[in-house]
Specification:
This protein is mainly alpha-helical and 206 residues long. It contains 11 helices and no strands.
Length: 206
């Protein structure tokens, strides 16, 4: 093999030590995102993800029964957790920051994966885990955490601290994405926050 052929040959991820536990799970999610960026959802293969994550395909199937479930968990891994939520001290700014983060994810390989999973759900509604793609982009628990912080500052009414109310903004974001695709204009995110979410939760009269 010539030096050029060796350089062009794909890296064999199996030659490195295998990972376990949380380290392995993070590696799998990162491998999934990398494979989505390179090949797209239609060509995503569990075997390739396993190779990139330096684990076995059987290890993946013990955790996820199909690639749709794996991609959904990778998406959830990519969005901020409650400890990483924006906390600027201003409700409007925090909501916009969260929605912008979700919009950026939907504009990339994960967004295309969501569309691919929904297309699979149409063809095969019983396919395990695929229909859950409809929940992607809806993160009421994260919005609720932001609303609770704002309620402590007096910006939000206590009766607005419900998952149903918190889910309105993300649901509108997801609806726009499914109908119009990505990228989602920032004006849309601003309108969702200013015209819908803030009037719905605000503690200010009128």
């Amino acid at each position: 093999m010539t030096p050029k052929q060796a350089a062009d040959r794909p890296a064999d991820h199996r030659t490195k030590p295998r990972r376990r536990g949380e380290v392995l799970q993070r590696a799998i999610f990162e491998a999934t995102l990398a494979e989505l960026a390179e090949a797209g959802y239609a060509e995503l293969a569990m075997a390739r993800v396993a190779e990139r994550a330096r684990t076995s395909k059987a290890s993946l199937y013990r955790r996820w029964s199909n690639r749709a479930e794996l991609v959904l968990d990778a998406f959830r891994h990519a969005i901020p957790g409650t400890r990483d939520l924006p906390d600027s001290g201003d409700l409007r700014e925090d909501l916009l920051t969260l929605l912008r983060t979700a919009a950026e994810l939907l504009a990339g390989p994960l967004g295309e994966a969501v569309r691919g999973m929904i297309a699979e759900a149409v063809r095969d509604p019983d396919h395990a885990g695929v229909a859950q793609a409809r929940s992607v982009g809806s993160s009421p628990d994260l919005v609720l955490a932001i609303l609770r912080r704002a309620a402590g500052r007096g910006e939000v009414r206590s009766d607005a601290l419900t998952l149903r109310v918190a889910g309105v903004g993300p649901a509108l974001l997801k609806q726009h994405f499914l109908v119009h695709g990505a990228p989602i204009p920032d004006q849309v995110l601003t309108e969702i926050v200013d015209e819908v979410v803030l009037p719905l939760v605000s503690s200010r009269a009128g």
